[in-house]
Sequence to fold (341 residues):
Amino acid sequence: MKILSTAKMLCLCCMEEHAVQTVTVREHSIFKSVPVEYTAEYFYCDQADETYADEQQISLNDIAMKNAYREKMGLLTSSQIAAIRAKYGISQSDLCLLLGWGGKTITRYESHQVQDIAHDTILRKLDSDPEWFLQLLNTGKTSFSAASYAKYTETGTALFEQDHDLYLKSAIMSKYARFLHNPGVTGGKVLSLDVVVDMIRYYANSSMVTGLFRVKLMKMLWYADALSYKRHGHAISGLVYRALLMGAVPIAYESIVDLSTIRCEEIEMGDGTGYKFLPTEDKEYPHLTQEDKEILDTVIQRFGKVSKSAIVETMHQEDAYIETAPQDVIQFKYAQTLSLS
Ligand SMILES: [Zn+2]
Fold:
């Protein structure tokens, strides 16, 4: 028995007013044929040497016992279920609607009723799969008020994007693993995707940059890293570039431009689809240093208003491109003779 606190009050055990202790006790009991151990809270009357519980304690002790059972059986606890629901910002009754369950099911699961395994599996899937949440939401669209539907969609989409970004980031980092200890091609920087995103947004948000499509962006990223290497002896981002037909292209660029913090718009062009990079609401670049920004400004001054074919043409005349075999990774040592300074 552990004493939590003491307060003078009417003792419901002996029906006299005296100092009553609030105590915790380790309890052992059997629930659904399973022995469980949990901590229960009681009042203690030292005059009668007896513990007793009020209504609230009885309720909380019952939940504590059932949570001990849930943990032992590998089921979600009531607070874990509440946390999943809170993550999606959805009400208890709307979550029941979403899952096609009886209207009070979630309310019961978040308190005294232990969920069955099938429902537990569904709640776990919901926790780990915001895409599924969005699908269910769309299927049941007419069941919700327009405002709730919009709110849930927004929350679900944000969670889905976070998940997607985590997946993309680990896919990108795995493609860079082999270059980790090769400063000649990383420019002496360990790849930071936060820095890359800030660089792309810095360009896309500049009024001095026009027609920022993929090919132009890739070249402008390379010029920034190469110029930084030339000026300061290290790249900005840690990106590794290959020499492709139209010049330098970072490894895993398809995944990089797919990150949700970058805004990109598909535009139908005569010869296929173009991807144009758009300004973002966020105009802060916490991952860029002043030195980095000066480099980016120099690149913007030189190439911001230049056409895609002109920047490709310029890249083709750089030693970095001429000296690198097609498809090979570009060495930063060639930055010494870069046309920018
Ligand atoms: Zn008493």
Notes: The mean pLDDT is 95. The pocket of zinc ion is lined by residues 11, 13-14, 16, 18, 45, 47-48 (CB under 6 Å). The two ends are 75 Å apart (CA to CA). Residues 102 and 194 are 44 Å apart (CA to CA).
